């Protein structure tokens, strides 16, 4: 699909309504029927858009996704609506009333900003992507707050705006791009644009090296439902600050420059920090809240003797600590009538699915356990336990 215009006509919109929710197995039959009364290209475009809307529902919610227009790259690269809304609220709280959204894609961030009451200039150089952003602003009743411009972002004057938001392309012909200077536009350009504005937010990959974060920026790693989604470099907030933010919530853990936690023997509880906490290098801050230590100086698992509630880590009660040995694990699972085995790993070369297949070839029994493949004081170790329950121990 290289042109959205046919789908925006009354005939195109009617077709989109008709093919809504079409299952993949039914597409051929539906296409054959519709082509009797509509151009084949339009039918194909409508079915393609229906597929994209179904995929986009996970990011945008079914209600919005069913009204929006997408490109394949737009679905893949768009910000999850909950993350975009959080970021827009941070900008609103800073007093921002207008934003230049550079590399706007299909308009996901512009939509969140407009819903926060912020006026947006949304810029993208790709004609189809810009057309999708414009159609989405109109479809969601936000055209009065969102101006879409098809242009090269490096040539846009942003002086009239309170803030700049830049979401550089981080995918190329060979997949994901890990070098920030290979982004399009490069991170160095985005930083210069940010420094020229009163406030700015740059969306970057969560794997960005900490040494690549400019001294003028606050770095924030964001997870949603336990999945790390992105990092954001903020300008005009708190230079040098580092935080991990967990959604829903939001809950934010601010870095305090703590030294690495001490290494301890494995206690009754094992805490698995949220991915945003790990990416932000704030395991020490999480461990301090838990009065915990590390099981190994290179492993981001925190151990403690007490169960404490925290949004920043998931707690497990540990019942056994064994040297890595598949036969011993298999015998233990059989003896304890385990039917469900969850395998997690950190610092181990063993693949969880491989261990699950060998240790529990024929699941049977009503019980479930979690096995952590890791290192304890440098030695390959299996920690066996289960998610901790409130009231299971002292707090």
Question: Your description of this structure?
Answer:
The structure is a single chain. The protein has 13 helices and 18 strands. The strands form three sheets. A nine-stranded mixed β-sheet has the order 3-2-1-4-7-9-8-10-11, with helices on both faces. With 395 residues, the protein is α/β, with parallel strands linked by helices. α6 crosses α7. A hairpin with a 2-residue loop joins β5 (171-172) and β6. The longest helix is centred in the N-terminal third of the chain and has 21 residues, at 40-60. The N and C termini lie far apart (58 Å). The protein is 31% helix and 26% strand.
Give the secondary structure arrangement, pairings included.
Blueprint (H helix, E strand, L loop, with lengths): L9 H10 L7 H8 L5 H21 L1 H4 L6 H6 L3 H13 L4 E5 L5 H8 L3 E6 L2 H13 L6 E5 L12 E4 L4 E2 L2 E2 L10 H9 L3 E6 L13 E7 L2 E9 L6 E6 L3 E4 L14 E5 L1 H5 L3 H8 L2 E2 L7 E3 L8 E11 L2 H10 L2 E8 L6 H8 L7 E10 L2 E9 L8
**Could you give the distance between the termini?**
58 Å
**Numbering strands along the chain, what is their spatial order in the largest sheet?**
3-2-1-4-7-9-8-10-11
Approximately how much helix is present in the residues? 25-40%
Morphology call: globular
Give the oligomeric state of the chains in this entry, treating copies of one chain as homo and distinct chains as hetero. single chain
| Spans where pLDDT lies below 50 across 5 or more residues | 391-395
Radius of gyration: 25 Å
Number of DSSP E strands: 18
Number of helices: 13
- Sheet-strand content, in percent, reads 25-35%
């Amino acid at each position: 699909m290289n042109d959205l215009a046919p789908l925006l006509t009354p005939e195109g919109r009617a077709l989109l309504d008709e093919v809504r929710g079409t299952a993949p197995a039914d597409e051929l039959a539906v296409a054959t029927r519709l082509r009797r009364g509509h151009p084949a290209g339009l039918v194909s475009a409508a079915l393609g858009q229906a597929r994209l809307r179904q995929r986009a529902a996970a990011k945008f919610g079914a209600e919005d996704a069913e009204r929006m227009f997408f490109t394949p790259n737009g679905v893949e690269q768009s910000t999850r609506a909950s993350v975009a809304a959080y970021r827009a609220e941070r900008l609103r709280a800073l007093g921002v009333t207008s934003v230049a959204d550079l590399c706007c894609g299909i308009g996901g961030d512009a939509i969140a900003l407009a819903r926060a009451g912020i006026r947006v200039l949304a810029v993208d150089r790709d004609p189809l992507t810009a057309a999708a952003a414009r159609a989405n602003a109109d479809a969601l009743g936000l055209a009065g707050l969102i101006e879409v411009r098809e242009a090269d972002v490096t040539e846009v004057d942003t002086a009239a705006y309170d803030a700049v938001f830049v979401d550089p392309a981080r995918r190329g012909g060979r997949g994901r791009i890990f070098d920030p200077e290979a982004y399009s536009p490069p991170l160095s350009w985005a930083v210069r644009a940010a420094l020229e504005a009163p406030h700015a937010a740059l969306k970057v990959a969560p794997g960005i090296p900490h040494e690549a974060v400019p001294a003028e920026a606050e770095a924030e790693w964001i997870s949603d439902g336990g999945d790390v989604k992105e990092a954001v470099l903020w300008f005009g907030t708190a230079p040098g600050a580092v935080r991990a933010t967990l959604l829903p919530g939001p809950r934010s853990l601010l870095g305090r420059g703590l030294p690495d936690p001490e290494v301890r023997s494995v206690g009754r509880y094992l805490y698995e920090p949220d991915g945003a906490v790990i990416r932000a290098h704030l395991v020490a801050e999480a461990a301090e809240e838990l009065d915990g230590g590390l099981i190994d100086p290179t492993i981001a698992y925190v151990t403690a003797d007490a169960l404490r509630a925290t949004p920043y880590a998931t707690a497990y009660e540990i019942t056994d600590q064994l040297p890595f040995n598949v036969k011993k694990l298999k015998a233990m699972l059989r003896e304890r009538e385990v039917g469900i085995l969850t395998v997690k790993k950190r610092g181990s070369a063993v693949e969880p699915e491989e261990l699950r297949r060998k240790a529990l070839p024929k699941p049977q029994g009503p019980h479930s356990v979690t096995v952590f493949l890791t290192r304890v004081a440098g030695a390959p170790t299996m920690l066996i336990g289960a998610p901790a329950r409130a009231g299971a121990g002292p707090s």
